[in-house]
Amino acid sequence: MTRVVVFAYHNVGVRCLSALLGRGVEVALVVTHRDNPNETIWFGSVQKLAESHGIPVITPDDPNTAEVLAAVEAAKPDFLFSFYYRHMLKAPLLKVAPRGSFNMHGSLLPKYRGRVPTNWAVIHGETETGATLHVMNEKPDNGAIVDQFAVPILPNDTAQEVFDKVTVAAELVLWRCLPGLLDGTAQFTVQDLSQGGYFGGRKAEDGRIAAGIGAKQLHDFVRAVTHPYPGAFSDIDAGRVVIWRTLRAGDTGRTVAGTELYADSDALYLACADGGRLRVLDATLDGAPLDAAAFRARFGNDPIAL
């Protein structure tokens, strides 16, 4: 039976570990993360899944230590897999498995190499993304592609909704290409890195709404950073306004200097610098719900600049 060591976290880790087990692969060791108490944990637990199957689990702060290397070597894996594990694995670990080390990435490589690829794809208004299994080396997300599967990004999909699709795509990719990996017939395709770029991680502060942003760009930005992420926000004299959900709503017929929030009838709207308009479906002011009635009670009928 083929033996593997799995580095995994998050829903992609859960579903890909399940796929390995479903294909009858022997998982000799799982390396995962301890949940951060300061992070909103909205995803499944790799550790719980592994323990339910009697698989040994370790949760090191740093995987690139002599102790972790020794544990992986003792597991004698044929393959090493990484499924949404948050640390880069260095050469000593990657060389342990004689039949190769592979990573599942949440984009259609070579596009969106690096961190939080789903969020970046939504921010940039992409109409599709997906999951890619590729050879793992010391440079992030640039190894040869084993297989990939595309999923659509609909115009109002949030990043979490897209990530749910990417999770299914990752499971499908792994399930489809595992037989070829196991019997040695899988074909690898070298990436043309000029067809994509590298993107870094995102912080809560990166949710600040940019001055002069257009309506489509703002709509894409809002849906990319909404729940379970910290949200798109602007700080005004009255506090922090967070825009959680919007819909495209035509044009305003006027030009504004930046982005204005205003009430019209029973709804909130955003007027954008390019003349576009968004209907605001969900917003808060300092954590309290902000709808048209609450807006008028606080600010009257005049728009406020974000």
Automatic annotation (TrEMBL):
Regions that span the bilayer: none
Span of the signal peptide: none
Superkingdom in the source lineage: Bacteria
InterPro entries: Formyl_trans_C, Formyl_transf_N, Formyl_transf_N_sf, Formyl_transferase-like_C_sf
Formyl transferase C-terminal domain sequence ranges: 203-296
Domain Formyl transferase N-terminal, chain residue ranges per copy: 22-173
Pfam families named in the record: Formyl_trans_C, Formyl_trans_N
Protein name: Formyltransferase
Organism: Crenobacter oryzisoli
Lineage, highest ranks first: Bacteria, Pseudomonadati, Pseudomonadota, Betaproteobacteria, Neisseriales
